[in-house]
Amino acid sequence: xxxxxxxxxxxxxxxxxxxxxxxxxxxxxxxxxxxxxxxxxxxxxxxxxxxxxxxxxxxxxxxxxxxxxxxxxxxxxxxxxxxxxxxxxxxxxxxxxxxxxxxxxxxxxxxxxxxxxxxxxxxxxxxxxxxxxxxxxxxxxxxxxxxxxxxxxxxxxxxxxxxxxxxxxxxxxxxxxxxxxxxxxxxxxxxxxxxxxxxxxxxxxxxxxxxxxxxxxxxxxxxxxxxxxxxxxxxx
Length: 236
Ligand code: ADE
Hints:
This protein has seven helices and eleven strands.
């Protein structure tokens, strides 16, 4: 593998990893867009981290930012593998705990409700392919796996929960399916690495729980991604 490209929504989610690898920022690479590029080389492999950047004084999150960042990264960097590393909500009922790290084994949207025939419904939900080696990587490194479902909101309305659970969703985020959509169009493999900041069925306010656990989950992502990069490149 010559080039691995991480797509990460929030700087806080990527910072421990960027620091661990002493990655260099390439300022203005995506100008005029706010996306940020950090790079290093590990053995013969180029490692990029692309962040969405900011608008309105906060890191851009959600599907729109994830889509355009991914498209720009694919066009400008032509990676062999994209890895979406980020935080998610999960369910106590599935045995999830804060800062657990999962590898995605499927990905879909949970808040695109298009009535109509099967084909429109299929397009709305997405159900995009993921990297074929996701499962073997998870097994070899001892990660749990789960189905990621993506929506445009941090909270979970009853209709979201119904769709998530009806479709076997376990990990709720705001970017993975959008990134998977772009990767599927470009035929670039995608690996999902998700760490839990909040329990969707835990009864606490999601935003408060997310803020409290963001640092722990981001450090868990650093540890997981170090092991994944070592596994993929054979180098520390
Ligand atoms: N990111 C972290 N926690 C989340 C949640 N509960 N829903 C959507 N995105 C998230």
